[in-house]
Amino acid sequence: MADDRLYVIGDVHGEAARLESLHEAILAHHQAAGGPADLVHLGDLIDRGPDSRAVVAAVIRLQSAPPPLLEVVCLRGNHEQMLLNALASDDAEEESFWLRNGGAETLSSYERVNGRRADWRTCIDEAHQKWLDALPYYWENPALGWLCVHAGIDPATWPRCDEEILLWTRSEKFFDPRRWPKRRELEGLFVIHGHTPTQDFLPDQRGQRLNVDTGAVYGGPLTCAVLQPNTPISFIKARPFSARS
User: Fold this and answer.
1) What whole-number distance in Å separates Cα of residue 216 and Cα of residue 239?
2) Is 3 a domain residue?
3) Do the domain assignments include residue 84?
4) Are the C-beta atoms of 101 and 78 separated by less than 8 Å?
5) Residue 191: CATH number of its domain
6) Radius of gyration of the chain measured on its C-alpha atoms
7) Is the pTM above the cut of 0.70?
8) Structural domain range at position 71
9) For residues 107 and 111, what is the distance between their CA atoms, to the nearest angstrom?
10) pLDDT in tens, 22-77
């Protein structure tokens, strides 16, 4: 959608109560501002935090019945990919890798609702599995140069970079836009991403990129960036109710 306002939410990681609070604030802002807009979740809805199932359910619910003039999108993060890999594989290492990286908390959130079962895969709602498997890797507004992606891009190969990079990169060649090559594909591009929690729990803007993973699951706020043409970027935040280490 070539709209002129964009809301972008950073990594949620199971922080369901704060996502609910942030959604309420965003919808109030959208109603007051008027006009069409897009709301993009950058992925990593799940793992580590207390209620990943409720987070997934909330985003599905909002996406299914958004308020007027708001299009709701969710991108695939590396944590969604780890879960999908574990669901699709008989390799015990895939399962263990996910569980060690916050998946145990996600599975517990599903077991609280659906009960424990011999095959843990059946604890994850089938509708949630299908929804997660269909998540896109990026969202863009070419008219305004906005690109939302979970982790980042490879400036040397975008838009043909590998999907693993979109989910996992922490390359300094991406983090420092001064090192980006002079390529036509990067002219006017502004990348909004998450994946790497900022150390000071503040959004990090450097040139042509903005990181809005402000460490919600580590005691920072859950942050939404608000972008509009010819307007300074603003932020809506849901503060932590209690810090977790």
Assistant:
1) 8
2) no
3) yes
4) no
5) 3.60.21.10
6) 18
7) yes
8) 9-238
9) 6
10) 999 999 999 999 999 999 999 999 999 999 999 999 999 999 999 999 999 999 99
